[in-house]
Amino acid sequence: MLAEFTIINDPLRPSICTNLCSVCYRNNEHKKIGCCSYEPEFCLFDLAFLYLYYPDIYELILKNGQIIKGYNGIMLEMKTGLNQCPFVCDIGCVLPKDALPPLCRLYICRQAAIFGPAIIEEKFDEYFSSKEYQLNNLLNSKLIYDQDFTRHRLHNFITEISQTVNTMISGINRINLPIESFKREINIVDFGSLL
Ligand code: SF4
Ligand code: SF4
To answer: Which atom in ligand 1 lies closest to the alpha carbon of residue 27?
Structure first.
């Protein structure tokens, strides 16, 4: 099989994908969703970005998500009662790549990454020095969070802060994004058995 990796070097919302996910070693006859059984968690910057560029997705997440304190500050966790992510289907994720939270955009499991370029792990680490990470920290520092915090208050915060965010990211050139592609012939029986 020809394993393919694509890195989209979006200066604001970078992403990595591989066709190995469509033949994930974790799939079985009952479930073909790879690692998308976990809860995607949208941080404040994700929410502001979605509010500005994907308002329908924003509304869906706000309506169904659960507010948590996560690895990236205050977040909306999007599963609540389901046994898989609501955005996954047999052919992958239905969301646009730049609408995804950082983990979904940048995580490639080690069993797949072993067939790709070494730069994959660096791309994930780069998130923690990225503009979007800094902006997310900034939004968290401005949010007043207490035990009475509600989705309504979260929505008010996002609507109020979104124009400031829009101004901050408006100078970032996201047109004609540089894309890196890597291809490698692999023996599919090795997938999931080399580590
Ligand atoms: S990242 Fe790895 S575990 Fe997740 S779907 Fe892709 S191949 Fe499967
Ligand atoms: S949002 Fe998409 S990539 Fe993330 S867990 Fe759900 S289906 Fe998978």
So the answer is: 8
Distance, in Å, from the CA atom of 38 to the CA atom of 19, rounded to the nearest integer, reads 20
Cβ atoms 77, 24 nearer than 8 A: no
**Domain boundaries of the chain, sorted by first residue:** 2-190
pLDDT at 89: 85
Report helix, strand or coil for 192.
coil
Pocket test for ligand 2, best of 104, 105, 109 (most atoms within 8 A of CB): 104
Residues 169-186 have pLDDT tens digits of 999 999 999 999 999 999
Which residue has its alpha carbon closest to ligand 2 atom 8? 36
What pLDDT does residue 29 have? 85
Predicted confidence at residue 80, as pLDDT, reads 66
Cβ neighbours around 154 below 10 Å, total? 19
